[in-house]
What we know:
Helix content is 39%, strand content 13%. It is α/β, with parallel strands linked by helices. It has one domain: Response regulator (Rossmann fold). Strands 2-1-3-4 form a four-stranded parallel beta sheet. It starts with 7 loop residues before the first strand and ends with a helix. 4-nitrophenyl phosphate is lined by residues 13-19, 50, 129, 131.
Amino acid sequence: MKSQAYQSVLFVCLGNICRSPLAEGVFRSIIATAGRGGNLLVDSAGTNGYHTGEAPDPRSIRVAHEHNIDISEQRCRQLAPGDFARFDLILGMDRSNVAAIEARRPKGAETTTGLFYEIALGEPKQIPDPYYGTDADFERVYRMILAASTGLSKLFL
Ligand code: 4NP
């Protein structure tokens, strides 16, 4: 039987340079503060591979840094079929991410997928793509990710 608490999560957005690296960093920070960092698997990926190998967007690095979180060493990668065997949860930032995740689900894979904010807090909100936005949009995205990560951490503790 599956244990009640999740042990692993993959955060997914389109590019893996703006939203999902921030979600990875914020969620890691929350579980580390709760004394749970070591035994959980936390990662992020993009549904496209345009930025593979790159660091997060400088605006995401900056907003994380402003909140004492360092995401500068993370590197972009694309969602891979093997992720469905490695992660209990694969969470998209918006509905198009969730659709793209589902489109890649290998036959028979039982991983839970869904909208990050909704799985975490029960409200069907999407975390909007800030790529063409302003610094204020990145701060808003950070706040949504912080709220959702705090909610999600309760499913892990
Ligand atoms: P993200 O934002 O999905 O939050 O990482 C984007 C970053 C890059 C692109 C799109 C979205 N892009 O098309 O290059």
